[in-house]
Amino acid sequence: MGTSPRFDQAPRESPRHAPDSAAAIMRPEPARLAHKACVKDALELARGLIENREDPHTLWVVNDNHRLIGACRLPDLLNQSPATPVTRVMDTNFFVARPRMDREQVARLFQRRRLWVVPVLDSHDHILGCIGVHDVMDVLAAEAREDAPHMVGTSPRELIRPARAWTIARVRLPWPAACLACSLASAFLLRAFETVLDRAIMLVPFISIITAMGGNVAVQSATLLLHAWIRPDDGPPNTLCFLRRELKAALILATICGLACSFVAVTILGRGNVALALVVFPAMVTAVTAAPVAGVRVPTVLRRLGIDPTIASTPAVMALSDLMGIAFYPAIAMPFLGHLRS
């Protein structure tokens, strides 16, 4: 078996690897083919793998120096003549992992590129093993369980020790406190515009609508930015380009929602008062269009300060977007007070 061109015995590195590394989740016995092998040899090797209840989906082709040069997928081999060299069938365009890569990084590579299997190569491009899609499923599930509490300002420790109420409160406290500070600032803003609201009480029902729409758009932008940081498809995202795209999308959403809200303001809540629509529409457009600024800048600032943005972004973004909406709305309404009927 050792002299057959079907097999290759590559040098092996030490099996000791960090538990969170790619090498820790790889299968250490990849199916290797020498580059002089033919399709017949490859199919015989695949049959042997099937008999041993192993996955023969991909066979790895190495050169005389034991370096990986290609991948032969079983479906591609079945349509070839038995005498065809594997070098004519193999695919040289494939993704690889290194032993010390973080296994979450490998799992995200599978997720982004929809891969089936990835080889693990050492510093000399010798194949040490391979990682299949089933090997990373638990990693992705564990990452999702860890990220979910962070997105709402809590911690996985709450799941580990659910009976310790004081620990839970201490973990959550900083972010509700920050939200409370922003909410108090919003309350002071409303108090400052108390005269405006007293003279046009019909403005009040739209405060919650405008702040809710702005908060929703801001959180969406923050979530997408965090997702791009965690799972970058083509490297880290350009924050400025991302913000420009979000502003354009927010402007479209704001225009549609502003027109709908203005229609309701004139026909139902405003009883034909067009001035109310002239206040509600620009207030909605301004608040919703400005919301991505909070959704992008807050996580960016937190990241630069060394604070995990997945933990604090959602509460802080919502509080800041509410503050902006409340500031814009009465300011836009002031020129129209003479035309608004209480």
What would a concise description of this structure say?
The protein has 342 residues and is mainly alpha-helical.
Description of the molecule:
This protein has a three-stranded mixed β-sheet with strand order 1-2-3. The chain has a two-stranded antiparallel sheet with strand order 4-5. It is built from 13 helices and five strands. The chain is elongated, with a radius of gyration of 29 Å. It has helices spanning 39-51, 74-77, 86-89, 103-113, 133-151, 157-160, 165-172, 174-192, 194-199, 205-230, 239-269, 274-304, 309-333; strands spanning 32-34, 58-62, 68-73, 117-121, 127-132.
SSE map:
Elements: E1 32-34, H1 39-51, E2 58-62, E3 68-73, H2 74-77, H3 86-89, H4 103-113, E4 117-121, E5 127-132, H5 133-151, H6 157-160, H7 165-172, H8 174-192, H9 194-199, H10 205-230, H11 239-269, H12 274-304, H13 309-333
Parallel strand pairs: 1-2
Antiparallel strand pairs: 2-3, 4-5
Helix pairs in contact: 4-5, 5-13, 8-13, 10-12, 10-13, 11-12, 12-13
Please tell me how large the radius of gyration is. Answer: 29 Å
Mean pLDDT: 80
Number of helices: 13
Order of helices and strands: EHEEHHHEEHHHHHHHHH
Tally the beta strands.
Answer: 5
Distance between the termini: 93 Å
* Oligomeric state: single chain
Fill in the keyword field for this structure:
disordered N terminus; two-stranded antiparallel sheet; 342 residues; 3-stranded mixed sheet; 5 strands; 7% strand; mainly alpha
